[in-house]
Amino acid sequence: MLSQERRRPSRGTMLCFAAFTVFVVCYEVFLWFSGGIVSASAAQSAVHFIDVGQGDCALILSGEDAVLIDAGLGTTSERVTIYLQDVGVSRLTAAIATHAHEDHIGGMAAVLRQFPTDTLYLPSQTANTRTYASMLDAAKASGTQVLVPVPGEVLRFGAGAEMHFLAPPPDSVYENLNDSSIISMFSQNGQRILFTGDAETLAETELLATHPDLACDVLKVAHHGSNTSSTNAFLDAAAPRIAVISCGKYNDYGHPHPKTLEKLRARGIEVHCTADEGTYIYPIIQEEGANAA
Question: pTM of the full predicted structure?
Answer without folding.
Answer: 0.84
